[in-house]
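Below is a concrete protein record.
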Amino acid sequence: MRMKKTIPKYTVIKDTREKEGYHFKEYDQCSGMVVETMKTGDYTVKGLEDVLCIERKASVAEISNNLGRKKSAFLAEMDRMKSFEHSFMVLEFSMTDVLEFPKGSNIPISKQRQTRITGKYILKSLLEFQINYGINIIFCDSKYNAFLVTNSIFKRLNEHFNTIFKVDYE
């Protein structure tokens, strides 16, 4: 007689407003993906909607826009993310990209001088989200790496919350 560990497959939920994000197909531990309206974040897992929230950021320019013109809505979302036991901001860029902003961004060079938001301000804001809101900030350097990190988060938390131990009498 021994204990056998089983972990059910998880289903990813992608927010309807997330247009350029990730696609999760059925494989290994994942049973695929559904698209639904989410109040907070871009991704979660069915059954973990109240404990897991992932916000994806594709570029430094996107987060600079969130901290500029869209600041009140973005801060409201960060405030909602506070209530999640596991909240993550997965960034598809590097710390260097942040610190050198707006250089290297998709903002035209002619408009970069007019940009009020600096890389140091973005870094300050990201650290404040981590410290004050408990949001895990993960620099992934690329969309592919961010997808792998997001999928790994799903696997680990699915295992954490859904591991079932059964007695095997063989």
Remarks:
- The chain has one domain: 2-165.
